[in-house]
Amino acid sequence: MAGYAEIAGHDNLIEHFRRAVCEGKVSHSYIISGEEHAGKMMIAEAFARALQCTEAVSRQTGDGCGRCISCMQAASHNHPDILYVTHEKSVISVEDVRQQIVSTAEIFPYAGNYKVYIVDEAERMNEQAQNALLKTIEEPPAYVVILLLTSQIGRLLPTIRSRCVEMALRPVSEAKIRAYLERRFQIPEYSARLAASFAQGNVGRAVAYASSPAFGEVWAQCAQIMKRLPRMRMSELMEEVRGLAAAKKEIDQRLEFMTLWCRDLLMCKAAGDEAKLICLQEEKTIREQAGHISYEGIEDCIRVIRETGARLRANVNFDVAVEMMLVQMRDRFQE
Ligand SMILES: [Zn+2]
């Protein structure tokens, strides 16, 4: 369980939680909403740790000290007053809520001033479960703090939502994600740039990309194709089609890589030497290609890639669709 320092972005939200701890103005129930892997759990855990920290410094910084017994217990998920609501089936049932929250909320915290409940995937609570929870949320014991984490806030009942403080995670800027990846994982700038631009504001996804060897391999495959495409013979092109067919399921990611490459070509044409490229590693090739292909040609390539994605989702013949795509793109480079 980490502190706020290890979270990228979400500054406003973190500031709110920090201030709540510093000023002792903590609400009884919060909804932390945001996409999967956006960082909801990290924020909830940092807040829980700060609430439970026994060092006075935590009331000044609003963050857990990271060193006291309470913080250690929080880090190892063994804190007696930080409770994770679990469920065995795909739904969080009324029994789960009764057994794990309602019936235990009345019992005083063991050690700390608070008793924190964390309900991950709160949208999995069915209506009865939410109604069972409602009573605790309406009349909570003074020490109870309930954190509902959800990627589908619309599935929570209006009665629940109206009694909780809603905190929504927004996409984090590419620059922030990039800096975070470079700092935290010491990866080279070009990998950080790629992973960040692919993650679309989702830090967890960026981390998954950055730490996945497959991500690098896929990227290398696509870069090879784009690099050689302008001068590719038909036999080589067919070989690439077979290569792509071997990983049919991940074709979307490959198409996205190719789109990124084309986007870099556009950037190069528009901004010249000033252009900030995503595919930094292939900068020389991209600048060279950008000098030969027209604006219209690049836009056509992007359109062809997008249309091919749509056709593949409609289940057309894979090899034919991908071959057509590569041929059309190659023609644009050769005009
Ligand atoms: Zn502490």
Give the domain tally: 2
Sketch the topology as an H/E string, one letter per element. Answer: HEHHHEHEHEHEHHHHHHHHH
CATH superfamily of the largest domain: P-loop containing nucleotide triphosphate hydrolases
Quaternary structure: single chain
- Examine the secondary-structure arrangement and name the CATH architecture of the largest domain: 3-Layer(aba) Sandwich
Please count the beta strands (DSSP E, at least 2 residues each). Answer: 5
Q: pLDDT below 50 for ≥5 consecutive residues: which ranges?
A: none
Silhouette: elongated
Number of helices: 16
Cα distance, first to last residue? 56 Å
- Which small-molecule ligands are present, each listed once? zinc ion
SS strand fraction: 5-15%
Radius of gyration of CA atoms, rounded to a whole number? 25 Å
Mean pLDDT: 93
CATH topology of the largest domain: Rossmann fold
Strand order of the largest sheet: 2-3-4-1-5
Helix content: 55-70%
CATH classification, class level of the largest domain: Alpha Beta
